Amino acid sequence: MAHTIHEKKKMLHRIRRIRGQVEAVEKALVQERDCTFILQTVAACRGAINGLMAQIIEGHIREHVLDPHASNPPERVQAAQELVDVVKAYLK
Predict the structure, then answer these.
(1) I want to staple 50 with a disulfide (CB 3.0 to 4.6 A). Which of 58, 73, 84, 91 is the partner?
(2) Is residue 3 predicted with pLDDT exceeding 80?
(3) Are 14 and 48 in contact (CB under 8 A)?
(4) Cβ atoms of 28 and 37 closer than 8 Å
(5) pLDDT of res. 7
(6) Position 6 confidence tier, pLDDT thresholds 50, 70, 90
(7) pLDDT reading at 92 higher than 90
(8) Chain segment 24-79, per-residue pLDDT in tens
(9) DSSP helix/strand/coil, 57
(10) What is the pLDDT of residue 4?
(11) For residue 71, what are the domain limits?
């Protein structure tokens, strides 16, 4: 997956933030924090993971569905963008 190599630094940064959020959930459970706080922290984790998923899917579409080394027909580029938009909206 060439697109993951190009975006490696950004994705690793996202993963590290997600790890911190998951550790915050664990810490909250250990400290017996209020369930509202725990739910908000879990929701933040889910949002971060969905953001990572959207980034990887968008890269996949742009690298493997479209040909990054060729001139793609405008309708194919538009269809790919529409798919990216739908995926992002779904994962939001």
Answers:
(1) 91
(2) no
(3) yes
(4) yes
(5) 85
(6) confident
(7) no
(8) 999 999 999 999 999 999 999 999 999 999 999 999 998 888 988 889 999 999 99
(9) helix
(10) 80
(11) 2-91
91 and 50 in contact (C-beta within 8 Å)? yes
Query: CA 52, CA 44: separation in Å to the nearest integer?
Result: 12
Domain of residue 59, CATH code: 1.20.58.1000
> Please, what sign has the CA dihedral across residues 55, 59, 60, 62?
positive
Spatial distance between the Cα atoms of 20 and 17, rounded to a whole number of angstroms? 5
Structurally, the chain folds into a number of domains equal to 1
The DSSP letter of residue 65 is I
Q: Cβ distance 19 to 12 under 8 Å? A: no
| Token output for 12 | 């690793």
| Burial class, 34, CB count within 10 angstroms (exposed 0-12 / middle 13-18 / buried 19+) | exposed
